């Protein structure tokens, strides 16, 4: 796993945790928290690409 992939997974993991806290640790919401965090990551990356802050090569974007 590349450094970028590790950073991405850590960001998603941390965000999923904070999503669960925001939802008051509702039971059976782990998958939803994770999927929401992945979506939040994609939205953040799209904003950064549009603003010119980052460039994403196609193979990394689909990882």
Secondary-structure map with pairings?
Elements: H1 3-22, H2 30-51, H3 58-61
Helix pairs in contact: 1-2
Task: Give an overview in words.
The protein has 63 residues and is an all-alpha fold. It has one domain (3-61). Helices cover 73% and strands 0% of the residues. It is built from three helices and no strands. Helix 1 (3-22) crosses helix 2 (30-51). The longest helix is centred in the middle third of the chain and has 22 residues, at 30-51. It is elongated, with a radius of gyration of 13 Å.
List keywords for this structure.
single chain, 63 residues, mainly alpha, 3 helices
Low-confidence stretches: none
- The domain tally reads 1
Q: Topology as H/E string?
A: HHH
Count of DSSP E strands?
0
Q: Helix fraction?
A: over 70%
Give the terminus-to-terminus CA distance.
10 Å
The helix/strand class is mainly alpha
SS field, number of helical segments: 3
| C-alpha geometry | elongated
Rg over CA atoms: 13 Å
Question: In percent, how much strand structure appears in the residues?
Answer: under 5%
Oligomer: single chain
- Biggest sheet character: none
**Mean pLDDT over the full residue set:** 88
């Amino acid at each position: 796993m590349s450094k970028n992939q590790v950073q991405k997974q850590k960001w998603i993991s941390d965000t999923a945790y904070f999503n669960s806290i925001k939802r008051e640790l509702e039971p059976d919401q782990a998958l939803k928290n994770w999927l929401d965090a992945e979506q939040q990551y994609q939205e953040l990356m799209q904003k950064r690409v549009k603003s010119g802050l980052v460039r994403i090569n196609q193979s990394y974007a689909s990882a």
